[in-house]
Structures are given as structure tokens and as C-alpha cells.
Q: What sequence folds into this?
């Protein structure tokens, strides 16, 4: 029997398509408990970008929380005795909206690759992230960077402690003036301030951005980060939708490699984000690398929903005393042909269809 796809929202359509994509690459569906020990999230609050956590006392006295994050739960429970843990998820998380001052329920879909992360694993995740965006809309940009390029620079400049976050914040805002002011307050010399300022504009095609970034390397860590990023991007092959942006960043305690941020035409903010978070695994006491990303399904509501031209393919009109057995058999035969069928006694107002039939004496006749 052939079925026609129902009228799905962009998020529903993406969920169905992406489940197939992720499973083709060997990822399995992972379902997370709605609740988690509050202490886990309190310990890693910086990883969650701050904000309040909804908590409650369970009947057994434990303090639990509605999960504000999925990656933490997956990383905590990852089993690494059977090779790499490759999972994807479709879950809701609960976070504080700092702008609105309210708690929000956020629908996410994402994947995690945990284990021995090498060049292939990073390239696979980057490739899947690009395919994820392309399956939703053709107009996309996937920004990539490497966290060690920034941390290596900060090490070379001796930029640490309380001064580092203010410089990172100015870099994220692409504010050359803000970077210069923050770096000067931290006692960074003129040459260092110049390098930091140049990074605010260090974005573009992979080839040109890498070439420019290599001119700013001050130590081996920065060079190694660019070499790794170059290898990962080259492995993917098609870089037409990729853009390097070295102001892209994550928390320095947790992210230490590839960084991702994905955009779709019609949505003003990133709908996909992720990266490599070996630092998080280390803080969880696990000797393993990890890389992944999340797609924010709620943001896809901004995309136009495909409008179906017809309400049904076939409308069948019947009399009140029609035999249900014969009519149901006729409906099944049409559905088996892949048609959408609706049965009514009278044609509804403004109802559109390709064909109208009447069921008379056990058979279908044209109206």
C-alpha cells in the first residue's frame, strides 16, 4: 500500500527525515528521563549558560530537576565498553529565558558521538550537521571554528583570569572597539591587541579564512587547531555552505575543538549549535572524546508551512442508508492506490478535491 505524506509542519517533517539520516550513519535513538539529579546540573551550570533550573523534591526526598539539557545526561550515562556511543535524541528541555524572565519548554533534536574521536568522527558530525540543515531548507550557512585557536591565542598573550571573559564577550559581539578596550584593561600589549582586533573580522570562506588565520598564529597550539580544522573541512568536500568564523566560541572549560553554528534563511538566529566537548567528559570522570550538535525544532516554526492544494484527492458522496461494508471496501481500494479519500453526505463548503464520486447501489459513479 502506498501512503501519501500528511501535511506536516517543518519541524515534524525534519524530525521524520532526520531520524532516517542519523540511523543510516549508525546512530540509535536515545530516550532521556524527564528528570535528573539536581546536583548534576548545578555542578555544570556554566555549561548550561547560567539561568535558573526548575527543581522539586521527589517522594523519596531526592532533589530532582526538569532537564535543562540533554547532552549532560547522555554524557553522564555513556557506556564506552562497546565502542563509540553514537546516539540521537528528540527531547524537550526546560530553560530560563533571560530576555523574557520566564521558563521555556524547548524542543530539540540532536546527536552525540562519544568515544575515540578522531579525524573521521569530526568529519562525520560536520557532514551530518550540514545535511541536517540542507534537509530543511536550501538556503543555509554552517559556521565552523576551533576553540583551541582562541585558547591558544589567550595562552600566548597571557590573557587569563577575570579578564578573559570580557575579551571573549567582545569577540563574540565582533566589536573591535570592545576587544581593544578589554584587552588594554587586561594589560595586553599593542601587538596582542592588534591580533585580537583582527579576529573580530576573521570570517569568510574556508580557504580565505584559514589563510588569514594562519598569519595570526602565535604558538603551536593555534597552528595545530587550524591544521585539524582544515583536515575536517577537507574531508567533507563540499564547502559551499561552510563559513569559518573565529569569533565563534563555547565555554573554555568544556569545549576544546570543533565548533558549529547553523543558520537557515528566514530565521534570525542559529538553529543548530554544537562542537567538541572533551572537557565536559573529563569533568565527568570519563576518558573519552565527544562531539555533537543540537537542532532547535521550535525555531523551525518561523519557516513557511507547505500548503496542500487540495483537501483530498477523492470526495465520495453517499446517501444516509448506504451499506457500510461495501462503502468501506470501496474506500480501502482507493486508499490502496495512494489516494486521500473523504466520505460525506454533502459536499462541504470550500472543499477542494480532484474528483467527486457518488456511492450508489454498491458502486462508485462520477458525479
A:
Amino acid at each position: 500500500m502506498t501512503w501519501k505524506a500528511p501535511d506536516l509542519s517543518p519541524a515534524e517533517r525534519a524530525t521524520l527525515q532526520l531520524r532516517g539520516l542519523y540511523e543510516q550513519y549508525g546512530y540509535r535513538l536515545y530516550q532521556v528521563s524527564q528528570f535528573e539529579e539536581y546536583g548534576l546540573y548545578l555542578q555544570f551550570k556554566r555549561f548550561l549558560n547560567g539561568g535558573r533550573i526548575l527543581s522539586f523534591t521527589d517522594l523519596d526526598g531526592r532533589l530532582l530537576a526538569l532537564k535543562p539539557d540533554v547532552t549532560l545526561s547522555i554524557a553522564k550515562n555513556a557506556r564506552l565498553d562497546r565502542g563509540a556511543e553514537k546516539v540521537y535524541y528528540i527531547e524537550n528541555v526546560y530553560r530560563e529565558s533571560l530576555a523574557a524572565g520566564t521558563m521555556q519548554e524547548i524542543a530539540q533534536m540532536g546527536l552525540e558521538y562519544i568515544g575515540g574521536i578522531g579525524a573521521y568522527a569530526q568529519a562525520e558530525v560536520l557532514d551530518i550537521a550540514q545535511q541536517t540543515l540542507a534537509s530543511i531548507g536550501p538556503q543555509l550557512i554552517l559556521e565552523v571554528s576551533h576553540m583551541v585557536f582562541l585558547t591558544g591565542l589567550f595562552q600566548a598573550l597571557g590573557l587569563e583570569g577575570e579578564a578573559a571573559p570580557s575579551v571573549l564577550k567582545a569577540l563574540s559581539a565582533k566589536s573591535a572597539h570592545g576587544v581593544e578596550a578589554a584587552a588594554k584593561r587586561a594589560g595586553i600589549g599593542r601587538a596582542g591587541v592588534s591580533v585580537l582586533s583582527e579576529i573580530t573580522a576573521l570570517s569568510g570562506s574556508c580557504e580565505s579564512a584559514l589563510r588569514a588565520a594562519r598569519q595570526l598564529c602565535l604558538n603551536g597550539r593555534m597552528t595545530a587547531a587550524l591544521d585539524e580544522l582544515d583536515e575536517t573541512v577537507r574531508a567533507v568536500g563540499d564547502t559551499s555552505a561552510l563559513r569559518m568564523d573565529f569569533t565563534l566560541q563555547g565555554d573554555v572549560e568544556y569545549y576544546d575543538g570543533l565548533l558549529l553554528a547553523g543558520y537557515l534563511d528566514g530565521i534570525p538566529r542559529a538553529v543548530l549549535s554544537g562542537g567538541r566537548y572533551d572537557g565536559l567528559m573529563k569533568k565527568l570522570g570519563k576518558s573519552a572524546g565527544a562531539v555533537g550538535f543540537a537542532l532547535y525544532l521550535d525555531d523551525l516554526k518561523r519557516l513557511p508551512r507547505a500548503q496542500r492544494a487540495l483537501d483530498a484527492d477523492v470526495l465520495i458522496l453517499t446517501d444516509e442508508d448506504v451499506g457500510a461494508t461495501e462503502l468501506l471496501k470501496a474506500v480501502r481500494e482507493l486508499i490502496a492506490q495512494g489516494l486521500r479519500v473523504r466520505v460525506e453526505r454533502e459536499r462541504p463548503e470550500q472543499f477542494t478535491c480532484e474528483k467527486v464520486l457518488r456511492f450508489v447501489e454498491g458502486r462508485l459513479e462520477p458525479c
Summary: The chain has three domains: 7-139+265-307, 145-248, 312-366. DSSP finds twelve helices and 16 strands in the chain. The two ends are 27 Å apart (CA to CA).
